[in-house]
Structures are given as structure tokens and as C-alpha cells.
Specification:
Distance between the termini: 17 Å
Strand content: under 5%
Protein name: NDxxF motif lipoprotein
Structural class: mainly alpha
Organism: Rummeliibacillus stabekisii
Shape: elongated
Number of strands: 0
Oligomer: single chain
Helix content: 55-70%
Number of domains: 1
């Protein structure tokens, strides 16, 4: 996910480590803010106290991951501007706030869905891993944006990168590999993690 690359670049900048090998990974053809289309729907379920079958849960995981990826892509042009030190206009800020609201809704809905229902055998641990990873990833970029705002305003007094470093225990390549291995094993097709070719 690009947002993790950006986060790493920023933390490296604060700590003075080398960024050279990561710069090429962060560059791509991000669309202009004016061209951003905000997804209309995210994962949502009101199911409670039910036993989910495999096919239903697999579809739910796919919807959750696809929604997260679409929202991530929609937020990229805004994040690029923020990381470049540019201020967003009121309408751009409103659009980004809408995206962030949908990201939170997607995460909370999926978390409640898997907490309030009985999952098929063999799915509990990996489904919870997916939820933790995606939610932590989104919280990571949200906190990073707040830090960048403070730095842009010249306020270094209350910088706390500890919470960002803490989330690295959940958001890392090792955890992502476990998730992708599970997706492959269960044949769950998604556009997340750059897996368009598997869908």
C-alpha cells in the first residue's frame, strides 16, 4: 500500500535515515484531485448472532478489502498534496473528510460484523488479522497526516511518533504476507495489495 511507503518516508525524514531506495516506489501516475471519484458504498452489515458460511464470509472479506483499496486510491491525490506541503481548498478538504469518514465506516462495520457473528472453522484468526491490519494501516496514515499538519505549521512541540512506530507491529510486510497467503489459500479475489490480476 502506498500510504505505508509514504509513512515510512516521513518517519525516515524525521529520524534522518536514507530514503533513496524507497523514493521510486512512491512515484506513480496518481490522478488529479479534480478527477477523484469517491466510492458510493463500503462494507456494511447489520447481521448479529448468526453463523456465517464460508462463501458469505469470503464475499464479505472481498468487499471490505476492495472498498478499502478504492478509498485508499481516492485519497492518494490529497495525501500527495499534503506531503508536498500544499494546503487543500475547502472543497478538497470536504472531499477528503468524506473519504476518511467512509474509511472509518468500512473498518468499524467489518470489525463489528466479525465480532458479532460466528465465523466458519479456520477463519477466525485470519479474518481478525485482516481487520487489525487494515484498521491499523488506516489509523497510521490518519495520525501521519496530523503530524505533517503540525510540522507544516512549525509546531514540533507535541510530535509523538511513538504511536506510528507502535502500529508497525501490526502493519508490516510479514503480516501482509500472512494475509495474502490466506487469500490465496481460500481463493478470495481482491484488488487490495496490488492483486488486480487475481480478481
Amino acid at each position: 500500500m502506498r500510504k505505508i511507503v509514504y509513512g515510512f518516508l516521513f518517519v525516515c525524514a524525521l529520524s534522518g535515515c536514507s530514503q533513496k531506495e524507497y523514493i521510486d516506489d512512491a512515484e506513480d501516475n496518481t490522478p488529479l484531485i479534480a478527477d477523484v471519484k469517491i466510492p458510493r458504498t463500503v462494507f456494511n452489515s447489520t447481521k448479529k448472532n448468526q453463523t456465517l458460511n464460508k462463501e458469505e464470509l469470503k464475499h464479505s472479506i472481498q468487499t471490505y478489502l476492495d472498498s478499502d483499496e478504492e478509498l485508499d486510491r481516492a485519497s492518494e491525490p490529497f495525501e500527495d498534496n499534503i506531503y508536498d506541503g500544499e494546503k487543500l481548498s475547502k472543497s478538497e478538504s470536504k472531499k477528503l473528510n468524506r473519504i476518511n469518514k467512509l474509511i472509518k465506516e468500512n473498518d468499524e462495520s467489518f470489525s463489528q460484523y466479525i465480532s458479532n457473528n460466528t465465523l466458519p472453522e479456520g477463519y477466525q484468526e485470519e479474518t481478525e488479522r485482516i481487520s487489525r491490519y487494515i484498521t491499523a494501516s488506516n489509523e497510521y496514515i490518519h495520525e501521519l497526516n496530523k503530524i505533517i499538519d503540525k510540522v507544516s505549521d512549525g509546531d514540533f512541540s507535541k510530535l509523538n511518533i511513538g504511536s506510528l512506530i507502535e502500529k508497525n507491529g501490526v502493519v508490516n510486510g510479514k503480516e501482509q504476507k500472512k494475509i495474502e497467503a490466506f487469500l490465496d489459500k481460500e481463493n478470495i479475489q481482491t484488488i487490495a495489495f496490488g492483486r488486480e490480476g487475481t480478481k
